[in-house]
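Friendly challenge for the regulars: who can give me the structure tokens for this chain first? No prize, just bragging rights.
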Amino acid sequence: MTARTALTYADYAALPDDGKRYEIFEGELCEMAAPSTFHQIVLLNLGTVLLEHVRSRQLGRVLVSPLDVILRDAPGETTVLQPDVVYLDRERLGLMSHRAIEGAPTLAVEILSPSTAVIDRGRKSRLYARHGVPYYWLIDLDARDIEAFALRSGTYVAVARVSGSAPIDLPPFSDLALVPESLWR
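First reply, four minutes later:
Bragging rights claimed.
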């Protein structure tokens, strides 16, 4: 059996620009499929709502993919994820560098697709929790709902599963008034 070589961010940054998307899970390179057009519509709709909310209240910063989030693992290992949406509250703005978010954002949002749903619900969820991302949302394109999770004692606990036309607030936002149905248009 040969030992696995753990990749670092430097290895990741040196990958050829071949038009493919990659992430590194605990030093292991994973190729990601390109998002669908519907995924992109939902991403831009959600990003717009969050950006306007955060900007108008000066709560921090909202960024959308593609964007690297670098989470440090054991020495020599790195996790580099590309959440669909990232929110940094004012206290975490220092995590932004020229190249990436370097540390745990306040909120990571993943939009599920057939090729990523198992990873987003499993491996990515565990990685975000282990690295202390306080809030995690999953957007299910098929079910047309949003699942919101909060980190409690190192594990994500479901705090809401929402859909429909009623305005709702999801943590970490107290007055978001997001209309889930508006994301699908």
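The chain is about 20% helix and 30% strand. The mean pLDDT is 91. Your move, everyone else.
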